[in-house]
Structure formats: structure tokens, C-alpha cells
Amino acid sequence: MPKDIPVIEQILSANDQIAEQNRERLAKNRVHTINIMAAPGAGKTSLILSAIRGLRGIRRIGVIEGDVASDVDSVKIRQEGIPVVQINTGGGCHLDASQIRVALDQLPLNEIDLLFIENVGNLICPVGFDLGEQTRLAITSIPEGDDKPYKYPSIFHEVDALVISKIDLLPYIPFNIVEYRRLVRSIKPEIQLFEVSVVTGDGLAEWLEWLKTLSPRT
Amino acid sequence: MPKDIPVIEQILSANDQIAEQNRERLAKNRVHTINIMAAPGAGKTSLILSAIRGLRGIRRIGVIEGDVASDVDSVKIRQEGIPVVQINTGGGCHLDASQIRVALDQLPLNEIDLLFIENVGNLICPVGFDLGEQTRLAITSIPEGDDKPYKYPSIFHEVDALVISKIDLLPYIPFNIVEYRRLVRSIKPEIQLFEVSVVTGDGLAEWLEWLKTLSPRT
């Protein structure tokens, strides 16, 4: 094949190379980074806000917000007095490592312990793109239904942790949470599982405790 | 540019060409086709099931199910005695016209009045791909929150109709439905809006009535 025709493998490895550079840069600055992936409306921003409020004075947090359009989420983060960068992808269905590299230039990395990257709302595309994070987290919400591991298996394979969100809605929605836990663990036995409601506060203590262990203060 | 290097414009137009062929074929068979697009868990399959049950004996329905993986949805459709074809995209985040062409070969088109295509659960990717449908429908559910038109404007621009689903959950979730209607209509003034709960049955009569007007029996 002629040298000047790019092939998919080269494009992917370009992303992986930049992701590796991001990871080294973050490690050098002692920033622990979590890439949060979920469907639209699963509660990504609310979960980040719960961490900001629950860890205030305990960990220094920064946020990169990924959206197709708008800055509604980053405005909420900014109101908490937290450094935040918004990435608008246009029509893009996921963030990539080069977008994160640009965003890192805008953040005071030496003043951040824990960096959340809120990926574009999507259960499919973000899974294939390493951003340079140390930890990959998915959120699935109770109203999305308990069949998601069958229909979107990759994301459950690929993440380190899963937050099952909106558990306050369990009384109103048919959702077999015992079976759901079993199914998720059958795909990924070592996954960290959290069951959380930001409305009632249920499960938030475990979620915050885990975030502290990820980013020990030095 | 050498002739043998495909460019994106040509690929897109190949999809559009096949979509046009699908549309002609469907018209010739007097099949009205609705492409349903929504985030994971918005209630696409439940809404299709409501139409199957509500229009039994009134319209003959067929279904094409698009999923990254699994056949859990098409099994539910099949249990209703309805012709259904499952398309599994592997990692693909949307259906395309050539997949639909193959699916149409598997369906008894002359015995179908109304064909639902359930696209892959995704608010972003499906919008750019004409499948040959006559009508484009989006579903957004109450638990996804009322900020979706800001964050995913394209889908609201591109559809003919929007079903706001799971309205039975309004008492438990902060969601300003008056503002949501206004916002959606500011993006697309002529959009058909339905507010539905398949649990309580609210709004189903209007939804079924509209489906009947789309596919007048000949």
C-alpha cells in the first residue's frame, strides 16, 4: 500500500499515542483522571456535582465537559467554583485524546487531585477511545431498564467501575436489580459497583470513599 | 484526486442512493415506514409494542430492530406474532440504508401497512443516515431530563415528530414540561408532539390516531 494513504490502524494508534502522553502528563502532575461514559440523561453531571460537594476541602477537583453542543453542564460546574473546560464536538459522538490534550492546557493541573472527564452522552462510541485516563467509569440509570448489558456489552467489558444511578426511582419502574448486578458481574467479575441516588443521598458515601482511595492526597 | 480513492461525500451519497431505492420499494408496496431514534432506554420498543397492541386488526405492522448486540427486543416483537428482522451492528452506532435493504428482503412487504425501524439507541449518530423512511420520529423520556434540546439539537431539527415518554414519572423527577415543549417548538415549529406513558396509557390514543393517519388503509 502506498505510504501516503492513511489506514484506520494508524489513526487509532495516533489517538493512543496522544492518550499515553496525556496519561504521563497527568501522572507527573499527580492528577487522577476518571473518564465517565453514559447514555444521555443517565446523571453524569449530577454525579460529578455530588463529588464536588462531598469532597470540598478534601480533594481538589477539575472537570472537562464533553457535549455535542451547549455549555449547560459546564455552567453548573463553574457555579461550584471548580475549574472546568467545555469541549463541543459538533456532531462527534465521543471525545478523543487530542481534544483532551487541548483541554489540559487550559486547566491548572498542579491544583487538581481528581479530574473528571464527562464524555459525550453515548453508550457506544466513547468506549473505543482512550483519553489518557487512569479509571473508566460507566453510569446506567434505573429508568434506562435492566436490559442494557445485553444490548451494549462493550461498555460493561471496558470500564473499571459502574454507578447504577437514580435508585430512588426503583419503586416506580420494573427493574430487577439483583439480576442486573449478577449480569454485570458475569460480564466483568472485578467491576466496582455503586448504587446511588443523588436525590436521596443513598450510596453517596461509598462513591465518595472510593474517589478518595483513587486520589490519595500526597 | 485519483478515481479509486473513495471520499466521504461519495460514501454518504451511496447511502442516500440506497435509501431512495428503499423508499421507492416501500411506496410501491404501500408500506409507511417510521425511523425511530432515541437514547438507550427511552422506550422505543415499548412504544412499538403499544402500537402493535393498539392497532391489532386495524393496521398490519412490521418491525426492523437495530441493536449493537442481542435480540432481546425482536424476541418481544415476535411474541406478538409480528414480522420482525433483527440487525446487529457489532459496534456500529446507527443503522444505514444498505442494512435496511437487506432487512426488507426478509419481510413480507405486501402484508405490511406500517413498518417501524427501531434504530440503535443513540441520540447522535442515527440522525445523519437516511434509511428510506417516510417519517422520522424521536423519543425523549422524562428521566433523561429537560436539557436534551440544548445538548443534542440536531435530532430535534431533523425529526417530523417527537414522543415525550414516561410521563408517569413526572411527579418524581424535576422536569419543566411547559418549557420543554416551548424549547422543542423553538427548534422545529411544525413538529408533531406526543406525551405518552405506556404504563398508565396516557397519550396513547393520540399516538395511535396519528399512526392511522400516516398509513391510511387502501
Please supply descriptive tags for the structure shown above.
seven-stranded parallel β-sheet; 218 residues; 7 strands; Rossmann fold; homodimer; alpha/beta
Descriptive report:
The structure is a homodimer of 218-residue chains. The first copy, chain A, is α/β, with parallel strands linked by helices and 218 residues long. The first copy, chain A, has eight helices and seven strands. Chain A has a single domain (8-214), classed as P-loop containing nucleotide triphosphate hydrolases (Rossmann fold, 3-Layer(aba) Sandwich). Chain A has helices at 8-28, 44-54, 72-78, 97-105, 148-151, 153-158, 177-187, 204-214, and strands at 32-38, 61-67, 84-88, 114-118, 135-141, 161-165, 192-195. In chain A, helix 3 (72-78) links the parallel strand 2 (61-67) and strand 3 (84-88). The model of chain A has no long low-confidence stretch (mean pLDDT 94). The A-B interface holds A 5, 39-41, 67-70, 72-73, 91-93, 120-125, 128, 141, 143-145, 147-148, 150-154, 166, 168-169, 172-173 and B 5, 39-41, 67-70, 72-73, 91-93, 120-125, 127-128, 141, 143-145, 147-148, 150-154, 166, 168-169, 172-173.
- At the first level of CATH, the class of chain A is Alpha Beta
**Greatest interface and its participating residue counts:** A-B, 36 and 37 residues
Got a strand count of chain A?
7
The CATH superfamily of chain A bears the name P-loop containing nucleotide triphosphate hydrolases
Specify the biggest β-sheet of chain A.
7 strands, parallel
| Residue share in β-strands of chain A | 15-25%
Total domain units of chain A? 1
Annotation field: number of helices of chain A: 8
Shape of chain A: globular
Which series of helices and strands of chain A comes N to C? HEHEHEHEEHHEHEH
Instruction: State the strand order across the main sheet of chain A.
Output: 3-2-4-1-5-6-7
Q: Report the CATH topology name of chain A.
A: Rossmann fold
The average pLDDT of chain A is 94
